[in-house]
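DATA CLASS: polypeptide
GOAL: derive structure tokens

***
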Amino acid sequence: MQKTKTIPIGNRSFTVRELSVRTIWDLVNNSGDETVSGIDRMKDLLKLGCPDLTEETLLEMYPSEIEELWQAFEEVNSSFLGVCRQMGIDRVIMAAIKESISEAVKRSPMQSASSSEPDTVQ
């Protein structure tokens, strides 16, 4: 049975779902695929892990709110992540997820807008 957890953040609620082994396997195996962008992997992960969360909603969230979502993700996926830790492959999986998130942030409209502003030092 798939685990789920609903958490309130601000005036919204988000349901985080346990991912299947195949879903995580596909994410890891596609992490080096140049034809699949990081932002697409991120969207897929969000749709599967937290279907209530859109890209736009994510971009409007505060880091502390994203941390709450991540903690819920880890909680509902704790069995799988625990086995991965025991096998020593948790770093590979986390690296793939972090790479997807990092690439998605780099390509986000908010990042593009902020990177066009000159850096100033006072």
Summary: Residues 110-122 have pLDDT under 50 and may be disordered.
